[in-house]
Specification:
The chain has helices at about 5-25, 30-40, 45-55, 65-80. The two termini are about 15 Å apart. It is built from four helices and no strands. It is elongated, with a radius of gyration of 16 Å. The protein has about 80 residues and is an all-alpha fold.
Length: about 80
């Protein structure tokens, strides 16, 4: 079960990780080339903000604790059905 804010955070953290690979010395060129290729069309911060605004059920920057609790409850309930 992945919640919208977890999905959003995964995309942002993956971008940071790929950028870190590019700036780390002694990483093989093939790995750096792969990271650069992945980042070529990677969503920007503004893309992610728009995605969160237009599809909050898929991406959210942050979920309120109560909303998170209800989402988890609903998903568990659906898994048991």
């Amino acid at each position: 079960m992945t919640l919208p804010d977890e999905r959003y955070r995964a995309v942002v953290q993956t971008q940071k990780f790929l950028l870190e690979i590019l700036s780390t010395p002694r990483v093989p060129k093939t790995i750096k080339d792969g990271a650069r290729y992945c980042l070529r069309h990677y969503p920007s911060e503004s893309d992610m903000i728009r995605a969160a605004e237009n599809a909050p059920h898929i991406f959210q920057q942050r979920m309120e604790d109560v909303t998170r609790m209800f989402k988890k409850y609903e998903e568990k309930k659906n898994e048991q059905a």
